Protein 1
Amino acid sequence: MSHASSSPGPEACAGGDGAGPVLETIAARAMTLGGLAIRRVLPAPGRRLVGAWCFLDAFGPLSFDDGRPMDVPPHPHIGLQTVSWLLDGEVLHKDSLGCEALARPGTLNLMTSGRGIAHSEETPSRHSGRLEGVQLWAALPSASRHVEPSFEHHAGLPVFEAPSLRATVILGALDGLRSPGRAFSPIVGADVTVEAGAHAALPLDPAFEHAVMLLRGAGSVDGASLRPDALVCLGTGRSELSLAAKGDSPLRLLLLGGAPFGETVLMWWNFVARTADEIREARDDWQAGRRFGEVKAYRGARLDAPPFVARPVPPSTKA
Ligand code: MN
């Protein structure tokens, strides 16, 4: 997916300070992306990372008879991994390496941009008429951010089970159970379901900072009710999370976590970098047709980069 930022300048995003548990709610912002209504949860105006997770868009649930609710033309990325995770429907990924993969519920599309890749994401011509999911970005740490680009598609992800609880491990590890997706920093992303009416305990790594977002149903985390379209930041220092499902439906939530990232990243458009010069070079390369290659399988024009205006970035923007 593409970061349709309204701001021409870069945003500095720092992680939490690792000072222990918190319970802070960040409300999503409603936006549109190529005609698709999305809720942008990260980056938030508080500008924080959760581990390496630096971007979270949620979309749907929606039903459609015709057309393509998702049609994001070819655009470039640097310095990050993208994770596409669907609750319903289909998204077709095509990239400049020549990879093409259909994301469906339960499958992971994981793209590592490294030094540069371009991709498109669209509703395929044969579809269910439904769409619901999230797209996430994980920032690559400095030592890995110039790796060669790659794409992975995984089905059959590991499922952690505890009384009244199941959690599909999307990326990283949960209680020692590891996703086959390649991760570049200590991280976890999981899709957690608690049976209707049940209380359950989810094991966490106390060295990680964590956050959760409600996907379906209703319930509470650590005694606090979960609001729709909001990210609940949990801080570090938790070895277990107490979850309760309310009402007649299971509670389903997205768990994000990771070791405090320890680096401040600069985010602009679809780039995660460290300096304004890197962003300017990546933008120039995209506009000039260098570095990123071509998404040959996509029918249609690619996205143009917006104008880039470097501006002073505040030294610390911890929320
Ligand atoms: Mn993208």
Protein 2
Amino acid sequence: MKELLMVRYGEIFLKGLNRPYFIRALVRKIRYALRGTGSNVWVHDGRILVEGYDDPETVVERVTHVFGVHSVCPAVEMPKEDFDALCEQAIRMMDGLKGTFKVNARRSDKRYPMGSPEINMEMGGRILDARPDLKVDLHHPEHVMNVEIRDQAYLYVRVIPAVGGMPVGTNGNATLLLSGGIDSPVAGWMVAKRGVQINAVHFHSFPYTSEQAREKVLDLARKLSFSCCGIKVHIVPFTEIQLQIRDRCPEEYSTLIMRRFMMRIAEAIARKTESGALITGESIGQVASQTMEALGTTDAVVSMPVFRPLIGFDKSEIIDIAKRIDTYELSSLPYEDCCTIFTPKHPATRPKKEKVEEAETCLENPEQLIADALAGVEVVSV
Ligand code: ATP
Ligand code: MG
């Protein structure tokens, strides 16, 4: 008898010709998540199995956070020939469970001497003999004793839900504008969940923003990198651009102009890293630079799609996800972001694109500013 973990993946995405590609990608990501645990991850009979670990809790915890995993089932594998032994094992696995149950047998080995209904009846009867406190409920059971008869028999009761989504890398790359705030890590996580490899850009305005602010962003990227399978963070020196905007441009448009520069630089980095889109943590109306008109003026400077997965979320909903993905505490550390320095007293909330463009002409050589920022980029892999 052997204990192992059966990994279930979302069925919807597995139809058609992409299935083997998807499974291979998922296996790679599970192996990555389990490195150092001594586990062996392999595909057998169309299923992903994990075995050979000492610490099941750690393995379950890690696998349930891998994008593409729908649920995991701690199972036992044993020889199928001895039906008495299967029933004894099933009774052991029902230990501690209360309420109603049913047995659900499936048989891919059609030569097995018992049919599925017969296994259900016989095993269900024996469980009831051993556990008269339990009741059978065929329609809405609290527990299902699953029995799969394949080359071996597999038994499992517990189904532990996992994060879902698709394996990272199966849907291309995108570049996340990562601040030290609450929103952008959540936005990156949501897009990564859909199978997208994340690449991050952070704008840093030293000495107006501190060394701790930079470290905080790297720590956030490290947190995300467990689910996102490693992230490259591009740290962009942004001080000169911010100072010039502060000194030369009309104050009411300064935040918008700053955001337009962020988008231009992020797009240049995105192209270099073969990203197909930009991602931001904006949501409609959250601040002056996130009104519909303001978002329109920031989008106008890039030709790549901009993904804003939080666009319709309230702050409290974003905070709930941040807590769930464990970025909230880090995000709440009180270090200044470059968006919060030099903020105008009365930012334009319904800016016209032409007005912002005109305000931007106060800058002498914007191309050079962008080129200098790009030349100073530092890349940190986390
Ligand atoms: P967040 O919690 O993500 O910081 P926020 O509510 O503070 O969001 P803003 O400061 O207006 O919002 O920023 C909007 C978006 O712009 C962020 O979600 C992020 O994607 C991007 N952004 C802001 N500041 C930076 C930065 N310093 N580096 C990279 N991206 C940034
Ligand atoms: Mg912010």
Protein 3
Amino acid sequence: MKLRHIVLALAAAGLSFAATAQEQIVIKFSHVVAKETPKGKAADFFALKAGELTKGKVKVEVFANSTLYKDKEEMEALQLGAVHMLAPSLAKFGPLGVKEFEAFDLPYIFDGYDSLRKVTNGPLGKSLMAKLEPKGIKGLAYWDNGFKSFSANTPIKTPADLKGKKMRIQSSKVLEEQMRTIGSLPQVMAFSEVYQALQTGVVDGTENPISNLYTQKMHEVQKHLTLTEHGYLGYAVLVNKKFWDGLPADTRKQLEDAMEQSTRYANQIAKVENDNALEAVKKSGKTTVYQPTEAEKREFKKALAPVHQKMESRVGKELIQSIYKETGFNPAKL
Ligand code: LMR
């Protein structure tokens, strides 16, 4: 009984009792999406690889679909050491006080996975991760999901179609500004609550890559989906820093290898998963999928362009300029 209390106390302090003992090290990995999404599959892949490469010394327990923690609670739980790993969307770091990650939310800032990769694989990606360390968090990798599209209960062909609509967003000021800029009413809400909010009319619409929309069955409660692909959604894989640093060096190295393989896997499957989800949504016949014309897409770009400048004070003008430079993005072309 007494030993159990000591173990609990150490765990609560984010210290690794198991790391110094011979027994198995358990890593709790919590996330909010379904198992059959790019992130869900990559987390399960990491659990498999971690077990293989450490020859069973490490057991990664994955808790999908907010079964352990919801959006708001999971960051806190990570800092306390109640959970060891997370992979929150880059749009969810504001409440932690690291608002620079919200640069990833700027509309149309990446025109594809390649330009995104220039940021995440380069010095900018690294310097953003470093901002987490004073918070007791270590960033291990960036994992892709994909590009978000708007859905609602009425057709969306122009930005004006979203005017006055209540739109669920993640906890990002950039996303808030994005919605306000086109006249929508943004509502921050945990991912686990979105389906019900759409079903009951608490909100009229939302935005997400199709893999998230489909696996949460949002297409059953949204009549229209327009493939605007107006913003990126990706993840930072995080660990409790104290826990990570307390692992035996050889084990940590094996886990780093497992993470490297998992990152490659995650970024390989993301697009395919979203393409498959789109096909499944179309086949379901529950929502009308609209492919905007080039002229309509341009309208969305033009309407959302002011968000970049408006958010300079939030995420940092210098950071935004550095991203433009890295990707070759020209804001004048929006
Ligand atoms: C959301 O909350 O809309 C998504 O970021 C969920 C996720 O983690 O993909």
Protein 4
Amino acid sequence: METILTVQHLTKKFGFLTAVKDLSFTIEKGNVYGILGPNGSGKSTTLGIILNVVNRTSGSFCWFEGNTSTHEALKKVGAIIERPNFYPYMTAVQNLKLVCKIKEVPETKIEEKLELVGLLDRKDSKFRTYSLGMKQRLAIASALLNDPEILILDEPTNGLDPQGIHQIREIIKKIAAKGTTILLASHLLDEVEKVCSHVVILRKGEKLYSGPVDGMMASHGFFELRTTAMDKLRELLEKSASFGKITQENGTLTAYLKEEMQAEELNKMLYDKGLVLSHLVKRKESLEEQFLTLTKNN
Ligand code: ADP
Ligand code: MG
């Protein structure tokens, strides 16, 4: 696997405040990463550091396995970390031509990128006539002009209406499907769930989890159970080493697994002990519930 970025023990202090604390993670080519955390958890600071616009306090980061200087490496990075800003009285195409000059890339890329973000039919409209969603899409087109190895987006759907949010997410998926690595910061769990393959979860600058989005959901889950003999059921489960916390509410018992167990297995075990269930459902905690559990108590 090709490593795009390695971040090691990164710390950023603003005076007494530690915005990012001993943060380590790696970004492999072809994946879509989310940095997920509530407001103020250090997402933008982290992006600022790896893009060389914020100075780190300690720790290190390294682009493309360290074979190029950060300055050279950043030429292969497309990033949108601020509100899109173009010349209001110039059209989309005119604005992108200017970007091509600055980035020293051929203007032939313009139509391809406008097509990708769904703005080809509005290419000759002035920037000031664009909606916020269109502005954001133009910024994405602009960031892609030099076919970067990785696209970095900070809260790409902030402030957009539901349709605008949907369009941006679909575009991100399309870009990812073409093989471009993506790193996006978001405080929205469902955004990360919908768009990302991997996630780094931050709380107050500290990493709580990093790994596949699927992996987060792979807690062992829990059973919801009902029977006429609830006391006996509870007794049996409390004796079993497979279960941790057991709660009871409204005639339903919830038993959390400490290890993997299928519903069939539990059903058979209870039946063999003379207990018949009237209700048996196995559930996994959603990423959302886990995220809320991880981020509360701050
Ligand atoms: P996020 O992007 O996750 O909302 P930020 O990285 O913007 O979080 O901020 C992390 C913390 O650092 C916050 O407490 C914020 O107030 C603080 N912070 C960010 N930038 C500065 C700065 N330039 N000066 C002082 N404090 C800052
Ligand atoms: Mg931010």
